[in-house]
Prior knowledge:
CATH class of the largest domain: Alpha Beta
Low-confidence stretches: 19-28
CATH superfamily of the largest domain: Gcn5-related N-acetyltransferase (GNAT)
Radius of gyration: 20 Å
Shape: globular
Helix content: 25-40%
Oligomer: single chain
Structural class: alpha+beta
Number of helices: 8
CATH architecture of the largest domain: 3-Layer(aba) Sandwich
Largest sheet: 13 strands, mixed
Strand content: 25-35%
Number of strands: 13
Amino acid sequence: MKINKPNTNHLADFLIYRSRSLGYDDSINPTLCWEFFSKKVGAQWIDEEAFCIGIYPFVNGHAFGFFELKSHDKSIQLEQWKNIRKKYSGQFYGPINGSSFLPYKFISKSDQSPIFEGEWNSNIKTVEFMRSMGPEKIIKYRSAYRTSFDAVIKVSHPFLTRWIDKGFSLETIKLDSVNSILNLHHLVHEIFCTNWGYESMNQNQFSSWINSMTKRENGSPLLYWIKIKEENVGFAYLFEMPDKTIIFKTLGIIRKYQEQGLGNALAGELHSIAKKRKAKKCIYAMIQVDNRVNRMPDPDISIMREYESYIF
Protein backbone atom coordinates (compact mmCIF):
# COMPACT_ATOMS: atom_id res chain seq x y z
CA MET A 1 0.00 0.00 0.00
CA LYS A 2 1.56 3.28 -1.10
CA ILE A 3 0.93 6.10 1.38
CA ASN A 4 2.41 9.49 0.55
CA LYS A 5 1.95 13.10 1.48
CA PRO A 6 -0.59 14.78 -0.81
CA ASN A 7 0.82 15.98 -4.12
CA THR A 8 -1.39 18.91 -5.07
CA ASN A 9 -0.48 18.98 -8.73
CA HIS A 10 -0.97 15.21 -9.12
CA LEU A 11 -4.54 15.00 -7.83
CA ALA A 12 -5.65 18.41 -9.04
CA ASP A 13 -4.58 17.46 -12.57
CA PHE A 14 -6.25 14.05 -12.19
CA LEU A 15 -9.55 15.61 -11.09
CA ILE A 16 -9.57 18.20 -13.87
CA TYR A 17 -8.68 15.57 -16.47
CA ARG A 18 -11.40 13.22 -15.24
CA SER A 19 -14.08 15.90 -15.15
CA ARG A 20 -13.25 17.15 -18.65
CA SER A 21 -13.00 13.63 -20.08
CA LEU A 22 -16.59 13.06 -18.91
CA GLY A 23 -17.74 16.25 -20.61
CA TYR A 24 -17.97 18.46 -17.51
CA ASP A 25 -16.78 22.03 -17.24
CA ASP A 26 -14.82 23.10 -14.16
CA SER A 27 -17.98 23.83 -12.13
CA ILE A 28 -17.19 21.17 -9.52
CA ASN A 29 -14.15 23.25 -8.46
CA PRO A 30 -11.79 20.23 -8.36
CA THR A 31 -8.76 22.25 -7.32
CA LEU A 32 -10.72 24.01 -4.56
CA CYS A 33 -11.92 20.64 -3.26
CA TRP A 34 -8.38 19.32 -3.32
CA GLU A 35 -7.02 22.42 -1.57
CA PHE A 36 -9.57 21.94 1.20
CA PHE A 37 -8.58 18.29 1.62
CA SER A 38 -4.81 18.62 1.23
CA LYS A 39 -4.48 21.23 3.98
CA LYS A 40 -5.97 18.92 6.59
CA VAL A 41 -3.47 17.86 9.24
CA GLY A 42 -2.46 14.27 8.52
CA ALA A 43 -4.05 14.13 5.05
CA GLN A 44 -2.83 11.18 2.95
CA TRP A 45 -3.24 10.30 -0.72
CA ILE A 46 -3.18 6.54 -1.44
CA ASP A 47 -2.84 5.29 -5.01
CA GLU A 48 -3.18 1.51 -5.24
CA GLU A 49 -3.93 -1.08 -7.90
CA ALA A 50 -7.56 -1.46 -6.81
CA PHE A 51 -8.43 2.18 -6.10
CA CYS A 52 -7.15 5.59 -5.18
CA ILE A 53 -8.42 7.40 -2.09
CA GLY A 54 -7.75 10.47 0.03
CA ILE A 55 -7.88 10.09 3.84
CA TYR A 56 -7.55 12.49 6.77
CA PRO A 57 -8.26 12.35 10.55
CA PHE A 58 -11.88 13.18 11.36
CA VAL A 59 -13.90 13.08 14.61
CA ASN A 60 -13.01 9.71 16.24
CA GLY A 61 -11.71 8.08 13.07
CA HIS A 62 -10.93 9.16 9.53
CA ALA A 63 -12.75 10.73 6.59
CA PHE A 64 -12.23 9.55 3.04
CA GLY A 65 -12.92 11.14 -0.32
CA PHE A 66 -11.83 11.35 -3.97
CA PHE A 67 -12.41 7.59 -4.14
CA GLU A 68 -12.00 5.99 -7.58
CA LEU A 69 -12.13 2.26 -8.35
CA LYS A 70 -9.31 1.28 -10.71
CA SER A 71 -9.53 -2.53 -10.72
CA HIS A 72 -12.67 -4.66 -10.66
CA ASP A 73 -10.84 -7.69 -9.29
CA LYS A 74 -12.82 -8.23 -6.09
CA SER A 75 -10.05 -10.15 -4.30
CA ILE A 76 -7.59 -7.29 -4.86
CA GLN A 77 -10.20 -4.74 -3.80
CA LEU A 78 -10.94 -6.63 -0.59
CA GLU A 79 -7.28 -7.15 0.32
CA GLN A 80 -6.37 -3.51 -0.17
CA TRP A 81 -9.48 -2.25 1.66
CA LYS A 82 -8.58 -4.48 4.62
CA ASN A 83 -5.05 -3.07 4.61
CA ILE A 84 -6.41 0.48 4.74
CA ARG A 85 -8.80 -0.34 7.56
CA LYS A 86 -5.91 -1.85 9.57
CA LYS A 87 -3.83 1.26 8.97
CA TYR A 88 -6.67 3.69 9.77
CA SER A 89 -8.59 2.14 12.63
CA GLY A 90 -11.71 3.57 14.24
CA GLN A 91 -14.70 4.89 12.37
CA PHE A 92 -14.40 5.62 8.66
CA TYR A 93 -16.63 8.35 7.15
CA GLY A 94 -17.18 9.21 3.53
CA PRO A 95 -17.12 10.26 0.91
CA ILE A 96 -16.52 13.70 2.44
CA ASN A 97 -14.93 16.77 0.92
CA GLY A 98 -15.68 18.51 4.18
CA SER A 99 -17.99 21.37 3.31
CA SER A 100 -21.66 21.88 2.47
CA PHE A 101 -20.43 23.81 -0.57
CA LEU A 102 -18.20 21.05 -1.95
CA PRO A 103 -20.68 18.18 -2.16
CA TYR A 104 -19.55 14.71 -3.14
CA LYS A 105 -21.70 11.57 -2.86
CA PHE A 106 -21.68 8.24 -4.66
CA ILE A 107 -24.53 7.91 -7.18
CA SER A 108 -26.64 4.82 -6.40
CA LYS A 109 -29.51 5.35 -8.86
CA SER A 110 -30.19 7.64 -11.82
CA ASP A 111 -32.86 8.33 -14.41
CA GLN A 112 -29.97 9.19 -16.76
CA SER A 113 -30.63 12.93 -16.63
CA PRO A 114 -27.45 14.88 -17.48
CA ILE A 115 -25.06 15.61 -14.62
CA PHE A 116 -25.87 19.10 -13.34
CA GLU A 117 -23.59 21.92 -12.19
CA GLY A 118 -21.63 20.97 -9.10
CA GLU A 119 -22.56 17.27 -9.23
CA TRP A 120 -19.75 14.69 -9.31
CA ASN A 121 -20.38 11.62 -11.42
CA SER A 122 -19.55 8.13 -10.16
CA ASN A 123 -19.98 4.56 -11.33
CA ILE A 124 -22.62 2.32 -9.72
CA LYS A 125 -19.82 -0.22 -9.13
CA THR A 126 -18.44 2.16 -6.49
CA VAL A 127 -21.69 1.86 -4.51
CA GLU A 128 -21.69 -1.92 -4.97
CA PHE A 129 -18.14 -2.07 -3.62
CA MET A 130 -18.90 0.14 -0.61
CA ARG A 131 -21.99 -1.88 0.31
CA SER A 132 -20.04 -5.14 0.03
CA MET A 133 -17.54 -3.82 2.61
CA GLY A 134 -20.31 -3.83 5.25
CA PRO A 135 -20.86 -0.21 6.34
CA GLU A 136 -22.36 0.34 9.78
CA LYS A 137 -24.67 3.01 8.36
CA ILE A 138 -25.69 4.23 4.90
CA ILE A 139 -26.74 7.88 4.65
CA LYS A 140 -29.01 8.42 1.66
CA TYR A 141 -29.50 11.54 -0.46
CA ARG A 142 -31.52 12.45 -3.52
CA SER A 143 -31.79 15.10 -6.21
CA ALA A 144 -35.15 15.96 -7.76
CA TYR A 145 -36.67 18.48 -10.15
CA ARG A 146 -39.90 20.04 -11.24
CA THR A 147 -40.86 21.99 -14.35
CA SER A 148 -44.13 23.51 -13.13
CA PHE A 149 -44.14 25.76 -10.06
CA ASP A 150 -47.80 26.71 -9.59
CA ALA A 151 -48.69 23.76 -7.33
CA VAL A 152 -45.86 24.33 -4.84
CA ILE A 153 -46.57 28.08 -4.82
CA LYS A 154 -50.23 27.39 -4.09
CA VAL A 155 -49.51 24.88 -1.29
CA SER A 156 -46.98 27.24 0.28
CA HIS A 157 -49.18 30.34 0.07
CA PRO A 158 -50.75 30.10 3.59
CA PHE A 159 -47.30 29.71 5.17
CA LEU A 160 -45.93 32.61 3.14
CA THR A 161 -48.81 34.89 4.07
CA ARG A 162 -48.38 34.11 7.78
CA TRP A 163 -44.63 34.73 7.74
CA ILE A 164 -44.88 37.92 5.69
CA ASP A 165 -47.12 39.20 8.48
CA LYS A 166 -44.24 38.41 10.87
CA GLY A 167 -41.73 40.35 8.76
CA PHE A 168 -40.38 37.64 6.41
CA SER A 169 -38.55 38.82 3.29
CA LEU A 170 -35.64 37.88 1.03
CA GLU A 171 -32.76 40.26 0.37
CA THR A 172 -30.00 39.76 -2.21
CA ILE A 173 -26.59 39.11 -0.63
CA LYS A 174 -24.03 41.55 -1.97
CA LEU A 175 -20.92 39.52 -2.70
CA ASP A 176 -18.79 42.64 -3.24
CA SER A 177 -19.13 43.47 0.46
CA VAL A 178 -16.53 42.02 2.86
CA ASN A 179 -19.01 42.31 5.74
CA SER A 180 -21.64 40.34 3.79
CA ILE A 181 -19.17 37.52 3.08
CA LEU A 182 -18.04 37.43 6.72
CA ASN A 183 -21.64 37.41 7.97
CA LEU A 184 -22.58 34.64 5.53
CA HIS A 185 -19.60 32.54 6.61
CA HIS A 186 -20.59 32.86 10.27
CA LEU A 187 -24.24 32.12 9.56
CA VAL A 188 -23.39 29.00 7.52
CA HIS A 189 -21.32 27.65 10.40
CA GLU A 190 -24.05 28.43 12.95
CA ILE A 191 -26.68 26.56 10.91
CA PHE A 192 -24.68 23.50 9.83
CA CYS A 193 -22.03 23.00 12.53
CA THR A 194 -23.90 20.06 14.11
CA ASN A 195 -24.65 18.29 10.79
CA TRP A 196 -23.07 14.93 10.06
CA GLY A 197 -19.96 15.25 7.88
CA TYR A 198 -19.80 19.05 8.11
CA GLU A 199 -16.52 20.87 8.52
CA SER A 200 -16.26 24.62 8.29
CA MET A 201 -14.10 26.29 5.71
CA ASN A 202 -11.66 28.82 7.12
CA GLN A 203 -12.16 32.41 6.01
CA ASN A 204 -9.64 32.19 3.16
CA GLN A 205 -11.24 29.02 1.80
CA PHE A 206 -14.72 30.52 2.04
CA SER A 207 -13.57 33.67 0.24
CA SER A 208 -11.96 31.49 -2.46
CA TRP A 209 -15.24 29.62 -2.89
CA ILE A 210 -17.16 32.91 -3.21
CA ASN A 211 -14.61 34.19 -5.72
CA SER A 212 -14.76 31.01 -7.85
CA MET A 213 -18.55 31.01 -7.78
CA THR A 214 -18.88 34.60 -9.03
CA LYS A 215 -16.42 34.03 -11.90
CA ARG A 216 -18.06 30.97 -13.46
CA GLU A 217 -19.03 31.28 -17.09
CA ASN A 218 -21.64 28.52 -16.98
CA GLY A 219 -24.20 30.39 -14.89
CA SER A 220 -24.86 32.88 -12.11
CA PRO A 221 -25.27 32.49 -8.34
CA LEU A 222 -28.48 33.67 -6.69
CA LEU A 223 -27.84 34.30 -2.99
CA TYR A 224 -30.41 35.68 -0.56
CA TRP A 225 -30.59 36.54 3.10
CA ILE A 226 -33.69 35.10 4.74
CA LYS A 227 -34.85 37.94 6.96
CA ILE A 228 -37.38 38.39 9.73
CA LYS A 229 -37.68 42.16 9.92
CA GLU A 230 -34.04 43.30 10.22
CA GLU A 231 -32.59 39.98 11.42
CA ASN A 232 -30.76 37.58 9.09
CA VAL A 233 -32.18 34.20 10.11
CA GLY A 234 -30.91 32.11 7.21
CA PHE A 235 -29.77 32.12 3.61
CA ALA A 236 -30.64 30.58 0.26
CA TYR A 237 -28.05 29.68 -2.37
CA LEU A 238 -29.36 28.94 -5.86
CA PHE A 239 -27.53 28.78 -9.19
CA GLU A 240 -29.09 29.85 -12.51
CA MET A 241 -27.85 28.09 -15.64
CA PRO A 242 -27.84 29.61 -19.14
CA ASP A 243 -30.60 27.16 -20.20
CA LYS A 244 -32.90 28.65 -17.52
CA THR A 245 -32.47 25.76 -15.08
CA ILE A 246 -32.27 26.97 -11.48
CA ILE A 247 -30.45 24.67 -9.06
CA PHE A 248 -31.43 24.88 -5.40
CA LYS A 249 -27.99 24.34 -3.84
CA THR A 250 -28.20 25.09 -0.12
CA LEU A 251 -30.94 26.48 2.11
CA GLY A 252 -30.44 27.10 5.82
CA ILE A 253 -32.41 28.60 8.69
CA ILE A 254 -31.11 29.14 12.23
CA ARG A 255 -32.38 26.75 14.88
CA LYS A 256 -34.85 29.04 16.66
CA TYR A 257 -36.86 29.47 13.43
CA GLN A 258 -36.84 25.83 12.33
CA GLU A 259 -39.91 23.55 12.31
CA GLN A 260 -42.35 26.49 12.31
CA GLY A 261 -43.34 26.54 8.65
CA LEU A 262 -40.76 29.15 7.61
CA GLY A 263 -39.20 26.62 5.20
CA ASN A 264 -42.57 26.23 3.49
CA ALA A 265 -42.87 30.00 3.16
CA LEU A 266 -39.37 30.09 1.70
CA ALA A 267 -40.28 27.39 -0.82
CA GLY A 268 -43.22 29.45 -2.05
CA GLU A 269 -41.17 32.64 -2.37
CA LEU A 270 -38.22 30.98 -4.14
CA HIS A 271 -40.47 29.28 -6.67
CA SER A 272 -42.21 32.59 -7.31
CA ILE A 273 -38.77 34.04 -8.04
CA ALA A 274 -38.03 31.10 -10.37
CA LYS A 275 -41.31 31.73 -12.20
CA LYS A 276 -40.56 35.47 -12.56
CA ARG A 277 -37.13 34.59 -13.97
CA LYS A 278 -38.87 32.29 -16.50
CA ALA A 279 -37.09 29.18 -15.22
CA LYS A 280 -37.78 26.02 -17.23
CA LYS A 281 -36.74 23.66 -14.45
CA CYS A 282 -35.78 23.74 -10.78
CA ILE A 283 -33.35 21.10 -9.50
CA TYR A 284 -33.06 20.34 -5.77
CA ALA A 285 -29.48 19.18 -5.32
CA MET A 286 -28.31 16.34 -3.07
CA ILE A 287 -30.76 16.61 -0.16
CA GLN A 288 -30.38 14.14 2.69
CA VAL A 289 -33.43 11.86 2.64
CA ASP A 290 -34.26 12.44 6.33
CA ASN A 291 -33.58 16.19 6.13
CA ARG A 292 -36.38 18.49 7.27
CA VAL A 293 -36.33 20.01 3.75
CA ASN A 294 -37.99 16.82 2.55
CA ARG A 295 -41.04 17.70 4.63
CA MET A 296 -41.58 20.84 2.57
CA PRO A 297 -44.40 20.75 -0.01
CA ASP A 298 -43.40 18.64 -3.02
CA PRO A 299 -46.26 18.30 -5.51
CA ASP A 300 -45.19 17.63 -9.11
CA ILE A 301 -41.67 16.55 -8.13
CA SER A 302 -39.57 13.95 -9.99
CA ILE A 303 -36.60 12.10 -8.45
CA MET A 304 -33.64 12.17 -10.85
CA ARG A 305 -30.78 10.80 -8.74
CA GLU A 306 -30.10 8.96 -5.50
CA TYR A 307 -26.78 8.91 -3.63
CA GLU A 308 -25.07 7.31 -0.64
CA SER A 309 -22.43 8.10 1.95
CA TYR A 310 -21.15 5.69 4.57
CA ILE A 311 -20.01 5.18 8.12
CA PHE A 312 -17.80 2.12 8.69
